[in-house]
Structure formats: structure tokens, C-alpha cells
Design a protein that fits this description.
This protein has about 350 residues and is an alpha/beta fold. The chain has two domains: about 190 residues, Glycogen Phosphorylase B (Rossmann fold, 3-Layer(aba) Sandwich), CATH 3.40.50.2000; about 150 residues, Glycogen Phosphorylase B (Rossmann fold). It is about 40% helix and about 15% strand. It has twelve helices and 13 strands. The strands form two sheets. Strands 3-4-2-1-5-6-7 form a seven-stranded mixed β-sheet, with helices on both faces. The chain has a six-stranded parallel β-sheet with strand order 10-9-8-11-12-13, sandwiched between helices. Helix 2 crosses helix 4.
């Protein structure tokens, strides 16, 4: 059996959503003998038209006609389409009208057309002076159209599921909601924190790491002192800062490294620091997912008193800015264990099974 996954881009481009789709494709192949054909919505993508044996079609340009043509070319037999939706992935202002138009034409001009949409985001909100505020109605309208157009929908946050239920006017009564899995894979075994190095990791987008080093440096320093951290590992596109001058302990700037190496670094660390996103959005953070999968103590700077998506401050993550009680390795181990247990309910194998079930019709 074959499916089509529509994505904004794919590796080697550094993009969490492309990594997510590729990891899912690997697992669907391994567990269900389900092969993926990727359709990439970025016409500027160059390079191989194949990744790990998965064929890739790249749209010639961003238009409904190009989308329709690409899907018709691939779908010689009835083939389910899985769309990974985040508006800003397909359009600079987050309004990919062309994408929804193309899918609607594909859906209505043939038989046995089956569309499943994974909503990684819905629509932006922002203050009056931002483009997000003015474009939010159009983004919302596209999400409504897409929800109604889709035969089945899934998402990563309960808040998104609640909104989608309302936006689709009850068309989708059951919306599977699973926080994202780790894009760098999952370790086969995890050691207790006491058997690991006194290492703290900052991993992710350069902007989020800049936040940690610039706005949350006091909290970072305090965390390192509390946990008696001996080394910090900085992973990702370089921030441009002189990291060696920020802390009294060594910061190793590792840059962009393979997933297998990141797994090794995380497996021998005790904590992962995260300045963004806020707790309300942790369920869609692949960095937070990676920390949980490797049984680290996730350290956050923002907090919320309201449990979100099964996550609770002080139980599944530590809040550096508002310590409720002194953090030691025993409490840290309990938090790491809780985060790890939470993650296992929606790990990659679990989600591959959910997607496989929703793609069969």
C-alpha cells in the first residue's frame, strides 16, 4: 500500500515538520509495510528526488493547478493523502489559498479521494500592529475549509482539537490528539541520572537558544549551579554569540550534528533547557519531546499553573524562574521519569499505528 505525504519541505532543509514526516514514513514502512510518496510544496527545493527510497515530487510552482496535477500524476490508483498543515510552511504570510484550492479540486474531481490532515498549527493570533492580527481571519477561514474538506483530521494539542471541533461545526466528532514525537529518534535504553555526566543541553532553533542566553541567562546560571552542571552542550545552527564568555563552566558549541550524535549527547546528560515555547504549546515542541524521550529533566523558563495536554509544572518539567521547592537529583529523577512515561503514551510507534489506522478507509 502507498500513501502520499504533502509537506512544506524535507531534509536536508532544517525544518522540524519535514523531519517529523520523514520519521513517520520510516515507521509506517517498518511496522505496516506502508510506502510514502512525498509531495514538497517548496518549488525552490533542489537535489535528489528520492530520500531513503521514498520518491519525492516537487511542485513546479505554488498553485492549485500544480497541486492538482502532481496528485493526479501520482494517484494512478486510489491513494490516501496525508497533509501536514502549518500555514506558514506553505505561504510567507501563512495564507496558502493555493494549497487548499488545489486539494479541493483534487477531492471533488475524482472518486475514492481520501484526505487526512494533521494540523500542526491552525492560525496565528497577534497584537493589532502585526500582520498576524490582520491575516488571522483568512488563516482561520483556510483552516475551516481544510477541516471540512478532510475525511479525517488529527492534531497535537487539545486546544487545537477543541477549536477544530467548533470550526468544522461538529463534522469531526473524534479528533485524535497526540503530542509530537522526538524528531531525532528514541534511545533503546536510558540510564538513571546518577550514572550520567553532569551535563546540560540546549538544543533547537537559534532564536530559542538566544532567548536562553540573553533573556534567561540568570535562570540558566542558577540551574547549572543547582544541578552542579559541569558542562553545557549547545546543539543547532550557531547563535553568533561568544558562548565561552557566558558561564563559569565550559559550553561546547556542537553546531548542526547528525541525529545519532544528538541521541548520544542527550543520553549522557541530566537536563535539557528550554526558553520557548511556553507550556501551553509544549505538546507541539519536538525539542521538548526529545528531552522527554531521553529521560532528561526538562527545564523551562515560562510556566503556567494550569496543566496542559497532560503536562504539569513540577511534575513533568521544572520551572527555573519559579522554583516551587529545591531541585536535587532525586526530585530531578522523578520529573525525568514522569516526562519519559508521559512520552511513551504517544511515541513514534504509537503514532505510526494511529496514522496507519486513520489512513485506511
Amino acid at each position: 500500500m502507498k500513501i502520499i505525504q504533502v509537506v512544506p519541505t524535507l531534509p536536508p532543509a532544517i525544518d522540524g515538520l519535514g523531519d517529523y514526516a520523514l520519521n513517520l514514513a520510516r515507521q509506517l514502512r517498518q511496522d505496516f509495510n506502508l510506502e510514502t510518496h512525498f509531495v514538497v510544496g517548496d518549488p525552490s527545493r533542489e537535489g535528489d528526488r528520492n530520500i531513503e527510497g521514498f520518491p519525492i515530487s516537487v511542485l513546479s510552482h505554488r498553485s492549485g493547478a500544480a497541486m492538482l496535477s502532481s496528485l493526479n500524476e501520482i494517484c494512478t490508483l486510489p491513494t490516501p493523502v496525508l497533509l501536514h498543515y502549518v500555514g506558514y510552511g506553505y505561504a510567507q504570510r501563512g495564507c496558502p489559498v493555493w494549497l487548499v484550492d488545489g486539494l479541493q479540486r483534487w477531492q471533488t474531481t475524482g472518486v475514492n479521494r481520501f484526505l487526512v490532515t494533521m494540523f500542526h498549527e491552525l492560525y496565528a493570533v497577534g497584537p493589532l500592529w502585526t500582520s498576524a492580527f490582520w491575516l488571522s481571519p483568512l488563516q482561520k477561514n483556510l483552516a475551516v475549509r481544510l477541516a471540512r474538506l478532510s475525511d479525517r483530521i488529527l492534531t497535537s494539542r487539545q486546544d487545537y482539537a477543541n477549536s477544530l471541533h467548533q470550526l468544522s461545526r461538529g463534522q469531526h466528532t473524534t479528533i485524535p490528539t497526540y503530542p509530537v514525537f522526538s524528531n531525532i529518534g528514541e534511545p533503546e535504553r536510558v540510564l538513571p541520572l546518577a550514572q550520567r555526566k553532569r551535563r546540560l543541553v540546549l538544543f533547537g532553533h537559534p532564536n530559542t537558544r538566544l532567548l536562553a542566553y540573553q533573556q534567561n541567562l540568570t535562570a540558566l546560571r542558577q540551574t547549572c549551579q543547582t544541578l552542579e552542571i559541569e558542562e553545557v552542550c549547545d546543539i543547532g545552527v550557531p547563535t553568533g554569540l561568544k558562548l565561552s564568555q557566558l558561564l563559569d563552566i565550559p559550553i561546547e558549541e556542537m553546531g548542526v550534528i547528525p541525529a545519532a550524535v544528538i541521541r548520544q549527547v542527550l543520553s549522557d546528560a541530566i537536563a535539557g533547557f528550554l526558553s520557548y515555547p511556553p507550556p501551553q504549546y509544549l505538546a507541539k515542541s519536538t525539542i521538548f519531546a526529545a528531552y522527554c524521550a531521553h529521560r532528561l529533566i526538562p527545564i523551562l523558563t515560562p510556566s503556567t499553573a494550569v496543566p496542559m495536554d497532560g503536562l504539569q509544572a513540577g511534575k513533568h518539567y521544572w520551572v527555573a524562574d519559579e522554583p516551587i521547592q529545591p531541585l536535587d537529583v532525586n526530585l530531578g529523577q522523578a520529573i525525568a521519569d514522569n516526562a519519559y512515561t508521559w512520552y511513551q503514551t504517544h511515541n513514534l510507534a504509537v503514532q505510526a499505528k494511529i496514522f496507519a489506522s486513520n489512513l485506511s478507509h
